[in-house]
Design brief:
Blueprint lengths: L6 H9 L2 E5 L2 E4 L4 H9 L7 E5 L6 H11 L5 E7 L11 E5 L2 H12 L12 H20 L9 E7 L1 H7 L7 H15 L1 H8 L6 E8 L2 H8 L8 E4 L5 H14 L6 H8 L3 H10 L4 H25 L3 H18 L9 H4 L11 E3 L22 E3 L2 H13 L6 H11 L5
Parallel strand pairs: 3-7, 3-8, 4-6, 6-7
Antiparallel strand pairs: 1-2, 4-5, 9-10
The structure holds adenosine-5'-diphosphate and magnesium ion.
Adenosine-5'-diphosphate binds next to strand 1, helix 3 and helix 12.
Length: 420
């Protein structure tokens, strides 16, 4: 039986933490009460393999690290593998154990003994071995600290940015290793004997395996596990409107900037990484951000699609998208084609380009009720941030990829449901 946790206390601790600096002002971890409850009550309901996915910059990593820290000292220990390329430059993922001081040190100390093999040649294989070594080290420490760890009932392994690692570091665009590793964990969850052989003493605890993924192709691989080992994809969305506006208003009390909070919601849709970009890289210059991070992002995505030999020029890609869209809209009786996500469906490289995201099933870590019904959030697909939808819509309506930030803002002012 899972002991009751003081969820309010966990949330309070999470909200205490400063997670972002915007123009010199420290932003506390905001919102995510819903996700915390879902995570504790549903994700950790069963030993399982879980895939947490959602827009780039929605806050997956921050959420997982913050909850891990906030739960330190309780019955749950997080072991966090960060495969962020910046960290693995030295070919070793950063590993954090969120557990009492003595044991944490013992784990980190023991991990130093793992000699890190040179970057892996045969896609994935050695890496899986690395994971295996790490797990062995942890098991060893747990043996030695049995008493201290007596109170630990749950061990949550979080494996973050693994897809990006495989892609950027190992050039494994097919993500063979995710199916291998996740499949292995699923096997453990399904078969007690495999779990005990693999995890030895650790198998006496309840074990959870959580992958945070940003790449859709990786998610497809994960999806193919099809429920094996209770494997489940969970959507993690950008911050809801109210929280996003709270943060902005709070920041604007301390930092001087001439911005329209309403318009920023219509562009960023609660994505904190893009807000970070806008403030810290673009010094609140919305037009410049819009050109570089939205309009050009779509053009670059189309360009990549061309270069892969699938269409002659980015104008041709747009033409084809409009033609296909028009006929699909007619067939499905959806009115005029303006870039509706369920019609565009991530084609033309828009999934790979992280412009759109496929919504996999009904499992959601985030409540999405406040974005459902927005034109950029469909049933099966969504734009990762609304600016991508509005920029593409401006292109579709003007039949040209050469749109200006003003064109995009005009499109928003004419069509958004809630602009003044
Ligand atoms: N709940 C939150 N409140 C405030 N800022 C947040 C929150 N979640 C994430 N952020 C900020 O948003 C940015 C992107 O978050 P990150 O966790 O890296 O996203 P992801 O892992 O989904 O790509 C980070 O700068 C982070 O500090
Ligand atoms: Mg992340």
């Amino acid at each position: 039986m899972r002991p009751a946790r003081n969820v309010d206390e966990i949330i309070r601790r999470m909200h205490d933490k400063v997670v972002l600096r915007l123009g010199g002002y420290g932003v506390h971890f905001e919102d995510r009460e819903y996700e915390v409850r879902e995570f504790l009550n549903n994700v950790l309901k069963l030993e399982r393999v879980a895939f947490i996915y959602g827009p780039f910059g929605a806050g997956k990593t921050t959420f997982l690290k913050t909850i891990a820290e906030a739960m330190e000292g309780g019955d749950t220990m997080f072991v966090y593998y960060d495969y962020n390329p910046a960290i693995i430059r030295e070919s070793m993922p950063e590993i954090m154990a969120y557990v009492g001081y003595g044991v944490k040190n013992a784990i980190l100390e023991a991990l130093k003994s793992i000699e890190v093999s040179a970057p892996i040649s045969a896609a994935g294989f050695t890496l899986s071995m690395n994971l295996g070594k790490v797990i062995n080290v942890i098991i060893d420490v747990l043996r030695r600290h049995g008493g201290e760890l007596g109170r630990i009932e749950n061990v949550v392994f979080v494996i973050d940015e693994y897809d990006r690692y495989l892609r950027e570091k190992l050039r494994d665009f097919e993500y063979h290793d995710i199916s291998g590793v996740a499949g292995g964990f699923a096997q453990c969850v399904e078969h007690r004997d495999v779990m005990e052989r693999t995890f030895k003493d650790l198998a006496q605890k309840r074990l959870y395996f959580i992958f945070a993924l940003s790449d859709q192709a990786a998610l497809d691989v994960a999806d193919k596990l099809g429920g094996k080992g209770h494997s489940t994809p969970y959507l993690f969305w950008n911050l809801p409107r109210r929280s996003f506006e709270n943060i902005l208003n709070e920041v604007l009390r301390h930092v001087r900037a001439n911005v329209d909070v309403e318009l920023l919601w219509q562009l960023l849709g609660g994505n904190m990484r893009e807000l970070d970009e806008l403030v810290n890289n673009y010094d609140w210059d919305v037009a410049m951000w819009l050109r570089e991070n939205a309009i050009n992002r779509i053009k670059n995505t189309f360009d990549k699609y061309c270069k892969a030999g699938r269409c002659g020029s980015i104008s041709k890609v747009l033409n084809e998208l409009v033609e296909n869209g028009n006929s699909a809209a007619r067939e499905l009786n959806l009115g005029e084609f303006v870039g509706q996500p369920d019609i565009v469906r991530g084609y033309f490289g828009l999934l790979e380009g992280n412009v759109m995201v496929r919504l996999l099933g009904a499992w959601r870590l985030s409540g999405t009720s406040d974005v459902q019904g927005e034109p950029w959030f469909g049933n099966d697909y969504a734009y990762q941030i609304p600016a991508y939808y509005w920029a593409l819509r401006a292109m579709i309506e003007r039949r040209t990829v050469n749109v200006s930030p003003d064109d995009v803002v005009r499109t928003i002012r004419e069509n958004a449901k809630t602009m003044p």
